[in-house]
TrEMBL record:
Enzyme class: isomerase
SUPFAM superfamilies named in the record: Xylose isomerase-like
Keywords: Isomerase, Pyruvate
Domain Xylose isomerase-like TIM barrel: 22-256
Protein family membership: Belongs to the hyi family.
Biological process terms in GO annotation: glyoxylate metabolic process
Record-given protein name: Hydroxypyruvate isomerase
Active site positions: E143, E240
Alphabetized GO MF terms: hydroxypyruvate isomerase activity
Gene that this polypeptide is encoded by: hyi
UniProt xrefs under InterPro entries: HPT_OtnI_isomerases, Hydroxypyruvate_isomerase, HyI-like, Sugar_Epim/Isomerase, Xyl_isomerase-like_sf, Xyl_isomerase-like_TIM-brl
Amino acid sequence: MPKFAANLSMLFTDLPFLDRFGAARAAGFKAVEFLFPYAWPAEQIAAQLRAHGLRLVLFNLPPGDWDAGERGMACHPDRGDEFRASVAAARDYALALNVKQVHCMAGKIPPGLAPETAHATCLANLRYAADLLAPHGINLLIEPINHFDMPGYLLGRSAEALAVIAAAGRPNLLLQYDVYHMQRMEGELSNTIRANLARIGHVQIADTPGRHEPGTGEINYRHLFALLDELGYDGWIGCEYHPAAGTLSGLGWITELN
Ligand SMILES: O=C(O)C(=O)[C@@H](O)CO
Ligand SMILES: [Mg+2]
């Protein structure tokens, strides 16, 4: 049976953030992930993890001004200092929270910038970040994101992200394969997972349309969970979806589809 982590940025959102940890444990999760820890001292989050016997498996580097629509800055040539500071911040939280994988958002291509320059900047920044994290045994992940939800994002297809990973040549730079985004951008889910398992550090799930829980849309999750088992995927699967009608009432898929 796959190992599922509750995404606390999307599940249990009727509760204040620090109360979501206990709710996830009570619902049966042994691990959690979320977008960003930076609004809380690491010790407060660590206390929640300890109190509920939970493991934190993923969070993101600071993304720039999220409320203003920024989605990372790795591809922004004029923001190198800010990017390097964001990597250091993520490293410090990862060490304090014993997290072994962090997600670096590539960013939206700045208006007027040549896509080749954005890609070259992203590549150099990812190498820098991977090298800073490697001595601590921390993996850096990049995730292709669908262009319907996030127009202008640098990485939209698995092949683009895999090309960056190959070009970077850093063993701790891996793919975050979000089944929802990949279904919307390219399909070919089973073949892509099978062909690239060694490069996949983390999987996330939601169904489409709607980005709700597995079983609510067009993706055959029973098949994909069996495939991940068959292939021996031993990483975590982040439940990164908007529950169709409440988090607890929407957890039935875990037993129904496994
Ligand atoms: O949206 C997603 O999918 C993510 O995994 C986030 O980390 C980035 O928005
Ligand atoms: Mg995702």
